[in-house]
From TrEMBL:
Record's keyword annotation contains Membrane: yes
GO cellular component: Golgi membrane
Coiled-coil regions listed: none
Family: Belongs to the sulfotransferase 2 family.
One Pfam match: Sulfotransfer_2
UniProt KW keywords: Carbohydrate metabolism, Glycoprotein, Golgi apparatus, Membrane, Signal-anchor, Transferase, Transmembrane, Transmembrane helix
Predominant localisation class: Golgi
Protein name in UniProt: Carbohydrate sulfotransferase
Organism encoding this protein: Sagittarius serpentarius (Secretary bird)
Amino acid sequence: YPRQHAPQTHLSEFNLTEIEAMLGSYIKVLFVRDPFQRLISTFMRGMGSSPSFSSFVQDVLDSGQHNAPVAWKPLVSLCRPCLVRYDYVVMFGFLRQELGHLLRRAGLPVDSRLPEFTDTRVQGTYSWLSEQMFSELSLQQKKQLSHFYRWDLAAFPFSRSLLSD
């Protein structure tokens, strides 16, 4: 977009005409991941002070959606997929398949030396880990998490999400 602005400028600081012009001039890609897997990843990286996954989940639920850190905030509230027309929505697990297509679409060279993505290889591990950690949660916590992420679950096809049940 031709207008000069600082890297820290938020989209909300522009008027509607400028926003539409900017968004129309970019290829918009949204990368999404199952919200329960995002929680596990956040917990495993130590981004909470809770000693157990169950207590971490309780901290997430107690924080509420509006006060939640970006690491576990629902994607719909971060990326506004109902307002922004994304050109591509790429699910975690399909990065390798989609990257070449995205690069070609953007007019960039598709290099044979693309990085090796581990997202497809770790899906089996995440399935096992998800089931183990899900079993640590109380029925009430499971229901509350499903409610917490209800809009993400409705907006994106997380067909294997444990929160969808």
